[in-house]
């Protein structure tokens, strides 16, 4: 069975820690195996990534990491060093080393490097991102490392908003990353209605590994998804997909309690 998890990766208001704890207990009981904290509204993970979390917030993160371990759930953080690939110089390396040390102190077991929703016109983007991830690996003690590409879907909306993707971007990124590094993929669309084994087989070939599905359901933060609460069970994700997936992470709704309703239909 494909490992199930949550990646708190939406745009929208931050949850309270009590809300996270309640969702954790629901999903851990259902067999979910990992939880990645990566809300876009946390400035210390994206636009202000060079700065450390304030002491009180760092303490909350460390406490939640312990709660995840106690529940048998692997806890990780999604760091988005915003457009660092445009200026990966000595200053960026110094700031990044300090940030990684601070994250290690929280007791995280997985680190996700998220290059999503960033603009670049670099033709060798995949090579530079691979260089950054290799450098990060040598400066962190986490056991599991994962990456979200800048072009994490075939959806042409990414090219319109963030610039045209370089030729063979996925193949180049797969070659630039060690085989054990997990790579996220959302499907043919950013918010995919259906995801087929045939599609995932093609992505597996391009990446040189099975992707981790970043499933943008039941998330409701974008123009298309924000008009409704998505409470129905997951559809369009056949069981045969498991042969081509290294994991299945759901991006939750803005309402944490309601997220458990569709999430548990995957179990």
| DSSP strand tally | 8
* Percent in strands: 5-15%
Q: CATH-wise, what's the superfamily?
A: Glycosidases
Distance between the amino and carboxyl termini: 9 Å
What does this structure look like?
It is a single chain. The protein is an alpha/beta fold and 267 residues long. It has one domain: Glycosidases (TIM Barrel, Alpha-Beta Barrel). Helices cover 34% and strands 14% of the residues. It has 8 helices and 8 strands. Strands 1-2-3-4-5-6-7-8 form an 8-stranded parallel beta barrel. Helix 1 (17-29) runs parallel beside helix 2, helix 4 (125-137) packs parallel to helix 6 (169-176) and helix 6 (169-176) packs across helix 7 (197-207). The longest helix is centred in the first third of the chain and has 16 residues, at 55-70. It is globular and about 45 Å long. The relative contact order is 0.15.
Task: Give a summary of the structure in a few sentences.
This protein starts with a strand and ends with a helix. The chain has helices at 17-29, 55-70, 90-105, 125-137, 157-162, 169-176, 197-207, 256-263, and strands spanning 4-8, 34-37, 74-79, 110-114, 144-148, 182-185, 212-215, 247-250.
